[in-house]
């Protein structure tokens, strides 16, 4: 395989997104390590999903009809691998645009012998719009998305009213959208969006943020932040209709 970088759009082949307009991500020129490349080469044919696959049937993809989770922006994949390993009775689809992260997750999948993980390496918006059937998901997780801290960049933040409504239609009624961030300003923005979102209700009867659920792993990054006194905010809302 040729050396994989995240510069996939310059070639015009299989662009990372088909959507126009403001994006919530910037493609970095990250190169895979040798171990990530080898894992990608070996495992992508088995675990990778593509836009060209079209609308999937999760029961066919996983060979069973179990609880289905979607993680958007899994980074280097450790938390997703931890969750999949801890819950072998559930299935997990991960989405990440940066290829080193995809390679890292596939390496974890191989080392842990996980069979309940599948991966997209395209814009999550394309996955939502073009690849997932209505009401197929039990849980959607967006953990520590890019906070775009400068006010002029807030429009790039992934969690926006329109995005949340498109997620809602992919969740079954009762399914949960779980958001987490370590930026207080973004947490406030998320809470405002979710409080106003049609068809969602807070799992916390008193409203506000949620305690971290046990199933969300604590990342090294998060531990380091906690040691420095940084806060982390979790929001869990479920689809009501």
Topology:
Elements: H1 34-47, E1 48-49, H2 58-62, E2 68-72, H3 78-86, E3 91-95, H4 99-112, E4 117-120, H5 124-131, E5 137-143, H6 161-170, E6 171-181, H7 184-195, E7 200-202, H8 220-227, E8 233-239
Parallel strand pairs: 1-4, 2-3, 2-5, 3-4, 5-6
Antiparallel strand pairs: 6-8, 7-8
CATH architecture of the largest domain: 3-Layer(aba) Sandwich
The unreliable regions are 1-6
Under CATH, the homologous superfamily of the largest domain reads Vaccinia Virus protein VP39
Going by helix content, strand content and strand pairing, the class is alpha/beta
Anisotropy-based shape: globular
CATH class of the largest domain: Alpha Beta
CATH topology of the largest domain: Rossmann fold
Helical amount: 25-40%
| N to C succession of SSEs | HEHEHEHEHEHEHEHE
Q: What is the topology, as strand order, of the major beta sheet?
A: 1-4-3-2-5-6-8-7
Major β-sheet annotation = 8 strands, mixed
Number of strands: 8
What can you see in these coordinates?
- With 241 residues, this protein is of the alpha/beta class.
- The protein has 2 domains: 72-132, no CATH class; 133-240, Rossmann fold, CATH 3.40.50.150.
- 33% of the residues lie in helices and 18% in strands.
- The chain contains 8 helices and 8 strands, in the order αβαβαβαβαβαβαβαβ.
- It has helices at 34-47, 58-62, 78-86, 99-112, 124-131, 161-170, 184-195, 220-227, and strands at residues 48-49, 68-72, 91-95, 117-120, 137-143, 171-181, 200-202, 233-239.
- An 8-stranded mixed beta sheet has the order 1-4-3-2-5-6-8-7.
- Strand 3 (91-95), helix 4 (99-112) and strand 4 form a beta-alpha-beta unit.
- Helix 1 packs across helix 4 and helix 3 runs parallel beside helix 4.
- The model is unreliable at 1-6 (pLDDT under 50).
- S-adenosyl-L-methionine binds at residues 71, 96, 123, 146.
- It comes from Marinobacter persicus.
- This is tRNA (guanine-N(7)-)-methyltransferase.
